[in-house]
TrEMBL record:
This is KCMB1 protein. It is a multi-pass membrane protein. It comes from Prunella fulvescens (Brown accentor). The keyword Transmembrane applies. The gene is Kcnmb1. It is found in: Membrane.
Amino acid sequence: MLGKKLVTAQKRGETRALCLGLGMVACSMMMYFFIGITIVPFYAKSVWTTETVCKVLKANIKDKVFCPNSKGSEDEEIFPYPCLQVWVNLTASGQEVMLYQTEDTLERNPKCSYVPDKLENSKEVKARIETIASNFKKYQTFPCYYDPGGTQTNVILSRLYPAKGLLFAFLWPTLMFTGGCLIIVLVKISQYVSVLSAWQ
């Protein structure tokens, strides 16, 4: 009787462990799919892949402009803000080009180097843009990214999804997938050893 209870408990434990391993594998596959349809296209689409050094030539704040969100924006999403324009000297080619914060900044408003968040207060936006402009004037030289193919003549300050960020995004699903596979393998080994012991 006691032996049967031990065998039953062992089978239940193996079943739960197997379900856990399969669940981890399934979740990791879903995470891979989500990353593949969200982050990877933006990373592959970006042409600003080469890092270089930029030197600030001028950083001016123009009059207020309206932020037209691209791709069919509604009127209520359009808001005014001071337009910061930063021009830099590209070390790689010696050209005078305009600097943008990220790839998204160029798509949202190609006239300005920085596009604030819609939900920010107007006074906070003005103070932030003035701070950014003063920082550019203070720190004249900094790393930036340009398009080595020449499709885009402008440069960006930082990439939305750099290579390190993409690897970090794939790290957690990879660990979960490896852990799930390891649990499944251990359960199968345990079952094989149990069957082998019973046969002997």
